[in-house]
Amino acid sequence: MRLSDLDTPAIIVDLDIMERNLRKAADYARSNGLRLRPHTKTHKSPALGRRQLDLGAAGLSVAKSTEAEVMLQSGTSDLLLAYPVIGRQKLQRLTEIARRSALTVSLDSLAAARPISDAAREAGVEIGVLAEVDVGLGRVGVQPGDELLSLVSGLARLPHLRWRGIAFYPGHIKELDDRGRADLETLRSTLFDTIRHLEQNSLHPEIVSGGSTPLLWYSHTIPGMNEIRPGTYIFNDRNTVYSGACTRADCAATILATVVSTAPGRMIIDGGSKTFSSDRLGYTADVTWGEILEAPHARFHKMNEEHGYVDLHAESTAFSVGDRVRVLPNHICVAVNLHEQVYGFRGDEVVEVWKVEGRGKLQ
Predict the structure, then answer these.
(1) 237-250 residue pLDDT tens
(2) Do 276 and 331 form a contact (C-beta atoms < 8 A)?
(3) FRET pair for 321, CA 20 to 30 Å: which of 13, 155, 158, 214?
(4) What does the longest C-alpha to C-alpha distance in the chain come to?
């Protein structure tokens, strides 16, 4: 099947670029003594998780218990659920997953940990735990210092849980401008002091898990971190380009769309918020929803659910109804979750199709 045979809108992935991205990150982690545990939120496909494992990933990361169930299909022997698990149904899933794979959960309270301990005891399984520490994002995590020490001490006492270390997510560092470099330096000193404080109290973390795609290539400069969890790097997207973590040549995934209507100075493509998501570009106040690769001066400036509005006043290329364009989305992770399958191609030939098995796995 050729790209021209695909119905649109469709997510298409250049396999040569994707494979280069995977090898580059695997080689980087290996050469710097880092455990690579990719976050599967980007691709949501056990087949792609398997490729990451085959290249040396130590395990896979997920955000939800239903995603963990899906990623067992990759054959992974080690899963990190990087999200607090709250609720009876989720705990039931958790213990079943722990029977089939080594499982670790990151959390930031004993209120979340105690029910996991009880469920693990009743099921006769052991579950690893990481104490989540807030290093500046202000989302989840306890504060470094005594608050973290108290959480770790409590986790270490709970039966059927094994405290393995700490986790953090530096999502507030999007680009390494002056502010980003200052935040990165603060992160380095915070993490160094955090680990030292734990070790001074005879608590030695086996795992210090963190990182992100924007900071991927600076991971070796963060003292004490020994595990990284990038996700977007497999495909990259417009936000990753703006962060400086990749170039457009490293963007493997685009969304193939068809022109369905034209008028002077504008066209409509067959994808809107149900195709691209409503995630904005994070590095400018200008609101656009993607970059039209065939029309670099066009402006994809508005969406309804099924309509994409493209302003062509500054673009010299003329388009007709039925023409196809490739759109580099702002945020590929959310876009993938909107699609049932993804198409891998080489040249003009579609050679692989992956079902998005983790699509809509929100619990």
Answers:
(1) 999 999 999 999 99
(2) no
(3) 13
(4) 71
Helix axes 15-31, 46-54, angle to 10 degrees: 40
Q: And the tokens for 148?
A: 């973290």
Q: Could you tell me where the DSSP H helices lie in the chain?
A: 15-31, 46-54, 65-71, 88-100, 110-123, 146-157, 178-200, 238-243, 273-276, 332-336
Tokens read off for 112: 């979340």
Place of tokens 């949501």: 44
| 211, two tokens | 């990182």
**What would the pLDDT profile of 22-33 be if each residue is shown by its tens digit?**
999 999 999 999
For residue 25, how many other CB atoms are within 10 A of its CB?
A: 25
pTM of this structure: 0.95
Give pLDDT tens digits for 316-341.
999 999 999 999 999 999 999 999 99
* Measured distance CA(212)–CA(210) in Å, rounded: 7
Q: Distance (Å, rounded) from C-alpha 219 to C-alpha 222? A: 6
**CB neighbours (10 Å) of residue 243?**
23
> Which option is the CATH number for 3-8+246-355: 1.10.3080.10, 2.102.10.10, 2.40.37.20, 2.60.40.10?
2.40.37.20
